[in-house]
Amino acid sequence: MDLSTLEQHVLLAVVGLHPNAYGVSIADHIEQVAGYEPSVGSVYASIERLEQKGYVTTRQGEVTAMRGGKRKLYVTITADGKSALRESLHQITALSRGLSWRGLPA
Amino acid sequence: MTNRLSVERERMLFEAQLEKLLKSNPVPREAIVRLAHDFAARNIEECRRAREEGRACVDQMELIIESLRTCTSKTEAASRAPEAHRRFAEVDRGFEEISSEFDLRSHLVNEVLGLAKIQISWLQREQAPPRLPETILAFVARTPQQKNALGDLNEKFIRWRSKVGQSRATIYYWAEAVQLVWEISRSTLRRILHWVALYVSLRWFGG
Fold first, then answer.
1. pLDDT tens string B145-157
2. Interchain CB distance below 8 Å, A70 and B111
3. Rama region for A35: left / alpha / beta (φ>0; ψ in -120 to 50; rest)
4. How far is the C-alpha of A52 from the C-alpha of B187, rounded, in Å?
5. What share of residues in chain B are helix, strand, coil (percent, to 5)?
6. Which residues of A19-43 are buried (b: 16+ CB within 10 A; e: fewer)?
């Protein structure tokens, strides 16, 4: 499936945070689990691309004081998104199965 | 559905009026407070009316149940049941509409008051993110989704400020804002470049 690494991470975060996945919580989740913090711009761009592919849907959330009067954009994975993610994870598992790490640079 | 639309319209009207006030120089803080107060007061009044109507619905439901309870025979109950069922469903539908209106309006009041509070506190500018990147972002952001991304940035700014202080938070904000502007304008730029390339190739190779 045509998923970049960040898109894959965003989709996994969306699944993990359901139903509270929005830009900042997705970035936080990725930081906690994967150890790097994606920027707001890259998370936003990934969400937009995933939405165009039909892998996620978005809905407007509530206004909070911290956001300066802007709404949250909650993201939910679609059935297509779920199968694309499964397929992509399956590919990685299949590719890594039986790999021999011996003899490779330390 | 009608109620939902009218509540949504009210919210949009409030946001439009607030935006208009925010554009004036100097921004009239009292006018923002008054605007929020009027909106909240009107909607709280509507909530009260909805609550009264909801109570009336519950009373009617109780009367319908009572009319079945007072039946002396099974035949009488069976004859009254279809009509009671129809009326109960009707009242229940009304009740659902009223309670959904109540929820929507009370949510709107919270939102409106929150929004006014935020704008007023941000007018003081002590704790707000830098204005220039915010203005640029507000200018390039066209869709509601893009405006939401600006909200994400604001939320992060508050966090950075508490962690590393105002000046470093401002630098982080600038860095993220530039990246966000790039992400937002990239697709538009790509589209423009595509059309420019098409035009140029047609002019050069089209004869």
1. 777 888 888 888 8
2. no
3. left
4. 13
5. 90, 0, 10
6. eebbbbbbbebbeeeeeeebbbbbb
Angstroms from B141 CA to nearest CA on chain A: 12
Which residue in chain B is spatially nearest to A59 when comparing CA positions? B145
Query: How far apart are the CA of B129 and the nearest CA of chain A, in angstroms?
Result: 9
Report CA Rg, chain B.
28
Q: In chain B, count H helices and then E strands.
A: 6, 0
| Contact: A41, B111; criterion CB under 8 Å | no
Quote the pLDDT of residue B1: 46
Residue that the structure tokens 């009326």 belong to: B87
C-beta atoms of B154 and A62 within 8 A: no
B115 with A63: Cβ contact below 8 A = yes
Nearest CA in chain A to B18: A69
Contact call for residues A43 and B148 (beta carbons, < 8 A): no
Is residue B183 scored above 50 in pLDDT? yes
Spatial distance between the Cα atoms of A44 and A57, rounded to a whole number of angstroms: 13
On whether any CB of chain A is under 8 Å from the CB of B164, the answer is: no
Amino acid at B96: E
Nearest to A58 among B114, B145, B184 (CB): B145
A63 at interface of B, judged by CB pairs closer than 8 A: yes
pLDDT in tens, B119-175: 776 665 556 788 888 788 878 887 777 778 888 888 888 888 878 888 888 899 999
Residue B118, CB half-sphere, CA atoms under 13 Å: how many?
22
Facing residues of A57 across strands?
A76
Q: Which residues contact B109 (CB under 8 A, 6 or more apart)?
A: B39, B40, B43, B44, B47
Pick the residue from chain A with its C-alpha nearest to B117: A65
The complex's ipTM works out to 0.83
